[in-house]
Request: fold
Amino acid sequence: MMLLPLTAGLQANHDNPSWTWEVVNHRLALVLSLWIGQNTQRRLESEDKRGAYKCICILERLYVPRLQSEELARRAAERLPRDGCAADLCTGVGAIAAYLGQMAPNATVVGTDLNLRAVRCARRNGVQAIVSELGSSLHSGAFDVVSVVAPYVPTGQLRLLPADVQRFEPTLALDGGADGLTQLRRSVFDAQRLLHAGGWFLAEVGGVQDRMLEPVLRSAGFDNFLSWHDEDGDLRGVCAQLI
Reply:
């Protein structure tokens, strides 16, 4: 399978190690989606703290990691003990799980996804990945961190997504149900079971979904609720701690 010339990468900052999704000439999601749709495999290269390069492979017709997921990955890594355990639900190609594994090499990181092709791709990226509906196959009370980039686009808004996304990315990875929170609500209660007391749940969201998800989290026993926004003021994620 052909590998395209690199024009975008995940690169580490040597003073403050964290990956960033960098774009050359075009929007990352657009470029990758178009190229992946041409029956090719894409590599994202990351430079780790030792200067070695790690490749993240993305096979055709799988969800492409987005620029905004960088902050979720960074915050999840900050909360993961060096020898802790993390579960990345809806892991897709395993970009976030691979990042956690690189930032905490002595930690145990497992990714789950319903899509067998995504799981196989994540494994190629060095992630311990299994086919599972969210965290249903994982042990209770065993995790320090649970992260998730679940589908969160309301069904009625799927038609507003860029044409390349609609054409080349799986609807299963995009459609979040009527209000966009169908899978996210389920992931909250999976995280409640998977985390030990004091563990952290982090999720990517958009719009005003932080306001909608906060009461769900609190009803599930979470506190210390936080949300974050990008430089344009758009909501990008939430996190909360199991009490």
